[in-house]
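Dear all,

This email documents one entry for the complex benchmark we are building for the journal club exercise. For each entry we list the sequence lines for every component of the assembly. Then comes the predicted three-dimensional structure of the complex as a token string, followed by one or two observations. Please use this as the template for your own entries, and keep the labels exactly as they appear.
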Amino acid sequence: MAVSDGLSIGALARRTGLAVSAIRYYEAQGLISPWRNPGGQRRYQRADIRRLSFVMIAQQFGLTLPEIREVLSGLPGNRTPTPKDWKEISKGLRSHLDQRIDTLIRLRDNLDGCIGCGCLSLPKCALYNPDDRAKSHGSGPRYLMGDAPEG
Amino acid sequence: MAVSDGLSIGALARRTGLAVSAIRYYEAQGLISPWRNPGGQRRYQRADIRRLSFVMIAQQFGLTLPEIREVLSGLPGNRTPTPKDWKEISKGLRSHLDQRIDTLIRLRDNLDGCIGCGCLSLPKCALYNPDDRAKSHGSGPRYLMGDAPEG
DNA sequence: CCTTGACCTTAAGTTAGGTTTAGAAATTAC
DNA sequence: GTAATTTCTAAACCTAACTTAAGGTCAAGG
């Protein structure tokens, strides 16, 4: 198989460390779009190695697959992305990450000041942050330490 | 219902902001242990408000329910936990959180230095951290930017 | 007493992010 | 030219953390 024919899904899997099934799944989620060879098998560009690596990094940063798809849509569609292109779309990751770090640091500092001091009764306590919780899991509002709306 | 009879599950749900179904689920997972009134309904202590609040906070910190159960097992079983007891078991959360923050800061700094500079080819790059990925989701090792073992 | 709302249990459904399985077709290796 | 790999699709299965549904009981108000 000549280089110009592209990578098979197995080759891409070996290069990225992802499972073949995961790569197919990402395709189903719109994160990557291979073409097909005459036999119907998927073929990938070398640039897709970097694309999938970016997906993996973004996942570590806590983005969901739809969010990553959104970020990737910022890449040029008509040509192979350049380092500058990657740098450009990484800006979004950067601010996402800054936010997460800020949140965690705030939580940590208030773990000391709040659980530590034994107050644990809110909403004056900054551990009270329904938005963070709502995003992180499940559905509906939650309140901490006994300060539900009804009192 | 007198105060000494304890809280119903609905009352506890209102005080914590959790869904009734979630509280029953936590019980099934061994995170909380109500007693039953003569009619078979669950009754909770006021201290359980704090217990569930702790569960919610620990979840924000990224602990799984089994992990939280483990942490909670550090509380005294024979009496209502004091602020000091809560402070004590919060130490584990603290180090967990410190680790997460360190990881994210490392990732952020290398996002600048690595995606930013356009190198994106590893393993010299510190974004390469299979352990973090392996923990955060799914199964098996993954490699970034085309540096799988086979080369 | 009767109704309404809260509660009970068990089982099945939900979402995210994948993996596994099965049977068939394409490719590669010898 | 075979045999062994790889790949294909579709559908089922998996875990975590819950929610929803179905059918029945308990408790509080008038």
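Observations: The first strand of chain A starts at residue 35 and ends at 36. Confidence is low (pLDDT under 50) at residues 129-151 of chain A.
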